[in-house]
Structure to design on (116 residues):
């Protein structure tokens, strides 16, 4: 069955950097666009960045454009999100999933906290 395992979150100071990863299994990873989503406390889950099947096309939310970079490794079935110049408003639980969503399954996510 589909499994998405996010990791790499943590506590970082404003202006710092962090890379989160997501290992996928149970489906043909290279057959899908992948997307990072995030959910801050009391807010809905929103898309942050997405990447095409072979990484040639990427799209970003305006709030992270120029600071975040999405990438993928289809051999390792892994999608990454490099986050630079982090701001307190980036604090959220970060999730990966396909784009568009194929089901209502979500992994456990990884917590990113930006605070001094």
């Amino acid at each position: 069955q589909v499994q998405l395992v996010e990791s790499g979150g943590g506590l970082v100071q404003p202006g710092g950097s962090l890379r989160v990863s997501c290992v996928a299994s149970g489906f043909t990873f290279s057959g899908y666009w992948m997307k990072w989503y995030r959910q801050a406390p009391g807010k809905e889950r929103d898309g942050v960045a997405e990447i095409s099947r072979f990484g040639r096309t990427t799209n970003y939310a305006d709030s992270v454009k120029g600071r975040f970079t999405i990438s993928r490794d289809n051999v390792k079935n892994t999608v990454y999100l490099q986050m630079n110049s982090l701001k307190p408003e980036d604090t959220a639980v970060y999730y990966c999933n396909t784009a568009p969503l194929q089901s209502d399954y979500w992994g456990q996510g990884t917590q990113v906290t930006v605070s001094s």
